Every structure is written in structure tokens, then in C-alpha cells.
Amino acid sequence: MKGLDNLARRFLYYPDRLPRDLPPPSWAGNAEEVWMQCADGVRIHGLWWDEPAGAPVILFLHGNAQEIYSWSLVRMELEPLGYRTLLIDYHGYGKSEGEPNEKGLYLDGEAALEWLQGKGVAEGDVVVFGKSLGGAVACEIARDRPLRALILESTFTSLASVARKLFPFLTRGVPLGERYASLEKIGRARCPVLVIHGDRDELIPVEEGLELYAAAPEPKELYLVSGAGHNDVSLVAGEEYTRRIGAFLEAHTGY
Hints:
Strand content: 15-25%
Order of helices and strands: HEEEEEHHEHEHEHEHEHH
Mean pLDDT: 94
CATH topology: Rossmann fold
Number of domains: 1
Radius of gyration: 17 Å
Low-confidence stretches: none
CATH class: Alpha Beta
CATH architecture: 3-Layer(aba) Sandwich
């Protein structure tokens, strides 16, 4: 079974590595490279945008592929919201140490929140925003925390529920080792929840997002993007994407 577990991980994680001395790309603007240490001793790499000074923070947890230099384009979409932004790479991604696994990714999210606390940012000033696999990490670290808000985009209810899409070589019902059981956790969110999903998502069916929304506590909002797949939600939505997120945050957090 261990071999099967390792095989599933090969098809779940697609980390790109970055040279340690490679500076951030030009489109990352004034991002600062930062490092944080996880509870297992692994050091992970992040990008930190510390403007506007004193503003609340969006902790962005990316999907299962690439690394934060590629994902830093998301800052352009989030910047109009007026929040500071922390973007982290998981175990084994980019410049981060270690190898990706479910426990390690949860430790990455925890380490990011602890790093923000060290910068004087209270949990109530943090919006945790998870995209796809990052949404599963977001559901884990949001449990019983008084966060400012939780945003899930293109996220699945559990790994088992989408296993046949992700791992077509597996027979039904085979245990995967990794669980990412977000549906079991989202009910313990203690903050406003926004669920975003493309209604033509070919990888994580829209029904997954609808189930997460149904299980989330109030206050909550659902934003379905018509015609969007898994990787093009913001592109299809255009300017409406940032506007809808901003309206949700203003309505439920006052900022």
C-alpha cells in the first residue's frame, strides 16, 4: 500500500523547483522574499507584499503545480482590494525544503499564520484564500480560528471524492493515504466564507464547490463563474472577479 500511496502523490503534486539565488520576477513588483520554519523543522519560502502599511493580509495558498514566482501574478488581481499579501510555497516547491505531503502542507499553512503573528498581524486580520489544493490546506488551518474570512476557489470536498478524475489509473475505493477531507472541516470555520467555482470545471466538478458551500457556516456567499473551467476562473470572470471578492470582504469584514 505504501507504493500506491507514493504513486498517488506523484499524480497529486507537481512542484517546480527554483534556484536559491534566483530573484523574484519583475512582475512581482516590490515583493520581499521571506522564510519561515515549520513545526517539523522544514524551512519554506514566501513572497510578502507589505503595502498598504497596516492593512489586513491575504494569505494565498496556491494549487498543486508550479511555484510562487509563477503564482505571484495573483498579486495583480488582489492588489486592488487594498490588502497586504503573503504567498507561500509548500514543502518541496520552489525554494522550500522537504517533500510535499498532506501533513507537510498543513504545517506550511500553520507556519505562515505564525509568521504573520510575528509581524504583529492578528488572526482576525488574516483572510485565508485557498485555490484548488490550497483550498484543502485553507480548510484545515481555518478550523476554530477567528480569521477575517475564508475564500475557497475551485476546491474539492475530499481527495477520495475526486480521485477518479485525478488518478484515472486507480480502481474505485482504493485507499490513497492522503485524505484532504475538507468537507469534514469547513463546518468548523469561525469566519465568513466565500466559495468560488467555475461551472465548467473539468477537473474539480462544480458540485464539489456546491457541497462545500452547503456545509459552510453562515455568513457565506457563493460565486459561480459561468463558462469557467478549473484554471481560468479569474480570466473568464475578468474585472468582475476582483469586484465580487471585494464586495464580499467589504460586506462581511468592513474592509
